[in-house]
Write a structure and sequence with these properties.
With 318 residues, this protein is α/β, with parallel strands linked by helices. It contains 6 helices and 16 strands.
Length: 318
């Protein structure tokens, strides 16, 4: 099988990805059903209306019959004033889980301070639910190499790799993996992603990996495992060359980073159903707050990093 090998059939805004049977997943799969809600990259400390966006997700999740909800990082910094924001997430009545994002530690905070704020016990952990094994990884380890990438840490350290290998070895269930940074984006994903993927592939139990971080809508398979990027709840990042004030002067003064982004009118999130060798993703479509990236001359991005205000509906068979 080629390094990236997937078949996509699009219709009505949805897509179907079909992976050849028996590749890197338990042959029987789980005969049970799990349904969860997922969001990523809310960025409370950038978006002026982050509270309303998160509330919309929690409200919709509360109407559905879900087994849990999970946020994939870049949620908020652990400031005391962000407790109200966290409480919105905590008011969801069911089980809920967190992934640590790189921006959650902005302002000089440590991962331990973020964990304390989120009331989460570990940077990486796993749990079983209804015939599936779920693994949460922390992509914010420091790369010990002198040739490490510049900027934010995006690495899975040796201790965590060993834990991952042991955790996979201890289960016979089909596995789903969650992380902030992806394991397939070669430019901005986890630096040692090939090392991580080798462990996942060797286990022959991992069906899919979900990530945030990249603020895009993309899915592919590599050597029998699906890699699904969940778009930001709030915006696409455009940078200083394309800064545009879209809201009021007061909002711009209080939230100066918004003008470097292309915000989405509606919050993006998804509901995922796992059932009988199938992953079904129900996403949300929105629009850019005007002007759009195209209108201000933002260049076309690669196919694996589209700048779009959507989380696509997908049906994935394995």
């Amino acid at each position: 099988m080629k390094r990236r090998d997937f078949i996509r059939y699009g219709f009505g805004g949805a897509s179907i990805l079909i992976l050849p049977l028996g590749v890197n997943a338990l042959a029987s799969g789980s005969k049970k059903r799990v349904r969860f809600g997922v969001c990523a990259d809310v960025h409370k400390d950038i978006m002026h209306d982050a509270d309303n966006r998160l509330q919309a997700f929690v409200d919709e999740a509360s109407k559905q019959k879900l087994d849990f909800i999970i946020q994939l990082g870049d949620f908020c910094r652990p400031y005391d004033q962000n407790k109200e924001f966290l409480n919105i997430f905590n008011h969801y009545a069911g089980s809920k889980y967190h992934v640590i994002g790189n921006h959650d530690m902005d302002g000089g905070f440590s991962r331990e301070q973020v964990l304390d704020f989120l009331e989460t016990d570990s940077k990486y952990y796993s749990f079983d639910h209804n015939g599936y094994h779920f693994i949460i990884l922390d992509g914010n380890d420091q790369n010990p190499s002198p040739d490490k990438a510049k900027g934010y840490a995006r690495f899975i350290g040796e201790e965590q790799l060993q834990w991952l290998e042991n955790d996979l070895g201890a289960t016979n269930l089909p596995c789903m993996v969650f992380s902030h940074q992806s394991f397939e984006n070669e430019d901005f994903g986890v630096e040692n992603q090939e090392q991580v993927r080798a462990i996942l592939e060797k286990a022959n139990k991992v069906v899919a990996c979900f990530s945030g971080h990249h603020h895009t809508d993309y899915a592919c398979s590599i050597n029998g495992i699906y890699y699904i990027q969940i778009n930001s709840m709030s915006y696409s990042w455009l940078g200083g060359d394309y800064q545009t004030i879209r809201y009021s002067k007061e909002i711009d003064e209080k939230y100066p980073w918004i003008k470097y982004t292309a915000p989405y009118e509606k919050p993006l999130f998804a509901f995922v159903e796992l059932d009988k060798r199938k992953i079904q993703i129900e996403g949300v479509q929105s629009q850019f707050v005007s002007p759009t990236p195209e209108e201000i001359g933002f260049p076309q991005q690669p196919k694996n990093s589209p700048v779009v205000p959507v989380i696509s509906d997908r049906k994935i068979k394995y």
